Structures are given as C-alpha cells and as structure tokens.
From TrEMBL:
Keywords, in A-Z order: Oxidoreductase
GO molecular function, one term: hydroxymethylglutaryl-CoA reductase (NADPH) activity
Keyword match Cell inner membrane: no
Name of the protein this chain belongs to: 3-hydroxy-3-methylglutaryl coenzyme A reductase
Family annotation (InterPro entries): HMG_CoA_Rdtase, HMG_CoA_Rdtase_bac-typ, HMG_CoA_Rdtase_cat_sf, HMG_CoA_Rdtase_CS, HMG_CoA_Rdtase_NAD(P)-bd_sf, HMG_CoA_Rdtase_sub-bd_dom_sf
PROSITE patterns: HMG_COA_REDUCTASE_1, HMG_COA_REDUCTASE_3, HMG_COA_REDUCTASE_4
Homology family: Belongs to the HMG-CoA reductase family.
Entry-linked SUPFAM superfamilies: NAD-binding domain of HMG-CoA reductase (SSF55035), Substrate-binding domain of HMG-CoA reductase (SSF56542)
Claim: rRNA processing is one of the keywords in the record: no
Amino acid sequence: MGEKSSRIQDFHKMSFEEKLKIVKEFSNLSDEEVNLLKSMGSLDRKIAETMVENVVGVMPLPFSVAPNFRINGRDYLIPMVIEEASVVAAASNAARFMRDGNGIISIATDSIMIGQIYIYGVKNISFASQIIYENKDEILKLANETDKYLVNIGGGAKDVEVRAIDTRNYGKVLCVHLLVDVKDAMGANTVNTMAEKVAPFIEKLTEGRAILRILSNLADRRIVRTRAIVKKEMLGEEAVELIAMASEIAASDPYRAATHNKGIMNGVIAVALATGQDHRAIEAGAHSYAARTGRYTTLSFWEKDREGNLVGTLEMPLAVGIVGGSIKVHPITKIALKILNISTAKQLAEIMGAVGLAQNFAALRALTTEGIQKGHMRLHAKNIAVMAGASYEEAEKIAEIMVNEKNISFYRAKEILEDMRKKS
Ligand code: NAD
C-alpha cells in the first residue's frame, strides 16, 4: 500500500469508470464497495434510522477523491464530500506542489479532550479548588469506571484542572476540567458520560451545584501541526512574496482571516464529511482556537524561508475519530476510511490538517495571481446553467459555451438555453 503512488496525471480528465478503477486498485476495494460507490447514494432505511430520528429520505452529496497527496512520507488518495465546485480540483492541484521528499509533514498530539463541570454556589473558590485537586485520583477513578474499554486500550481520564470563571450576574463559577484521552474516537459521548458521572462527587466536595456537564469543543489539547514547502522554482519568486504578504494581511485583519480560514475548512470539512465526522464540532473548535488570544486570526501562516521557498504552517484542533458516532454505521464512511487505509484517529487528524493546508495554498495562489473567479466559475458554470433552467445534459453544453466565451453568468446561460431550445 505504502509504495503505491497517488500522483496521477490527468485524473480529472478520466471517465467515471476509469477513476473508480484507480481508486479500487489503490485502496483494494471489493466489488461490493465499488458497486456501493457506483450506486450514487443509496442508503438502507434501517441504517438511516439507526443514525438519526424522523427520517423521510436521504440526501446524497458527491463523493470525490483528490489524488497527488503525499503526507508524512506516504501517498494518499483523499476522499472528499462537498457541494462546492472547485474545492476538490484545487486540493488535487495544490498537493502536486507539496510532494517533494516526505511531502506534507503533519503531527497530531494525543487525543486529549476536555470535559467541563461548572459548579455554582461555591462559597470559597480557592479552598474548593484545593479540595478538588486533593481528590484528583478519586475523580479520575470514578470517571474511568464509565468506559472500561477505553481504559484497557490506554485511554481514559488522565488529569483534572480547576478554573474560576467570572460571570456578569452570578459572580464566580467554579469550572472543573477533566482531561480525557479518547484515543480513536471523537470522544464527545465518552467525555460527557464521564462529566455526568463525576459531577455529584464534585458537588459534594465543593458544596456547590453542577449546572453544566459536557465537553468543550475548544479542543486545544488535541492539536494538529502541519507544515508544507513549495519550492520557489515551481511557484515563481513573485508568487512566494505575494502569498506571504497575503498571509500577513489575513493574520492582521479578522475580516480577511475569516475567509482565509474558510479556505482551510473547505478541505478539512470535505474530508470530515466523507469520513463521518461531527463537522460542527470541528468548525466550533477551529474558530474558537483562531480567537483564543482574544483576537480572531488565521489558523495557518505562510512565509519565505532562507532559500526563498514558500513555507506554510497550520495549527488547529481536530477532534476526529475512526470509531464512534456514525462512523462504523454508514457504509460510505467505512469506504472512505478504507481508501485512507489508516488505523488511528491521530492519522486522520494529520491527513485533515494536510488537506486544509493544501486547500489554503490553492486559494492563496489563485487569489494572488489570476484571481479566484476564473478557475472557480469555470467549474461552477454547470451549476449556473442548471439554475437557469437547463437539464443536466443541456448544462454541459451551455457551460462549455460560456467557458469558451469567458462569460459565465446566469443571464448568459438563460440566453444560450433559449437559443438552444428554439433550434431543437
Ligand atoms: P461513541 O459514544 O459512539 O463511541 C465511543 C465509544 O467507542 C467508547 O465508549 C469507546 O469505548 C469505544 N471505542 C471502541 N474502540 C475505541 C478506540 N480505539 N478508541 C476510542 N474509543 C473506542 O462516540 P464518541 O466519539 O464518544 O462521541 C462522538 C459523538 O458524539 C458524535 O456523534 C458527536 O456528534 C456526538 N456529540 C457531540 C457533541 C459536541 O461536539 N458538542 C455533544 C454530544 C454528542
């Protein structure tokens, strides 16, 4: 598996069948798995009803793969699920620039999540904190009684921290953090169960009342750090300079930082959707981390190194799992994980960080050179044509005409459509 190259020339020009064949061979998919992908989104009703409530149908989204990724010395095809045109193309293209040596370097910390127990009505906050620390072992023991499996594989509640929070109308509230290594799960349910379990004991210790018992989505102990280099020979010296400058602007201006980070999340969330992650949790974590100093800034930074190459670094929380939630329930999610061929949640976080950074590079490169619209609108043209009332077959032709004319608009799509229909 490790020896197979994901550098696939002109993958986007291949037919659907050819693409599937490549994915099948790269990832050793079975005929059954290939047929499931080919079915374009059927989901057994029982599976849907296992996942959520009040099901009345399914809503499939395109499942794509991005070739060319090399991460930590290994080649990957990246499964991506997204509704927005050009994201997959941009990621695949960006990955080509970052393949040198071991490719993109990405390291994730252990899977430490934070469970929070907020206690109000505590008379002496500093004394109560001391008592909690003195009873740390008992708190951890109680928490770990809730998930023997996790403890057996080396995870579980590992530490306790106490904080005091100033509120506007209710004075100081005590906050106990339970630090839990959730291993290969996203961990929300695991941590929430532990927080609820230990809360009565903490109430007893502090003589206060637990008001909230749930994880924090600001998963700042579960961080991925990613680095990629783009050689100046590949990019051009001017582009290196412009991207570094664009990065500095974004870091200094929250209005730009939000869009800069959105570009990162295009990649991160597409992989999250393909692999069945709680993407709301990932978004909440990313943006709260970006604002952790009190001022919202970028999750990534681009600069010129001593040799004049472009270096990008990304740091963000990624609470992701390869077990838990609906990950082992949804059949397509299982295929996505098989395509990645990974065995830990840490690896998944590392891959998602790498895709986020590559996606970010693609956007910055387009923005600082020809502008983002040329490539984006070319790939979005078919959607515009459908919006103008074209059938999917008509849309292909209309998009081609609009791309050739370099005039991609709703108005023009309508004109061409009317013309086409008059002639036929
Ligand atoms: P879970 O409860 O479905 O799975 C966790 C279980 O998997 C644990 O009990 C553990 O024993 C078991 N497990 C098996 N193999 C494991 C391994 N190798 N590593 C770790 N655990 C292993 O899911 P979860 O991950 O605890 O919670 C995720 C779910 O919680 C998601 O569906 C998410 O949407 C939801 N959720 C999120 C929030 C939030 O983010 N604010 C709040 C509530 C629920």
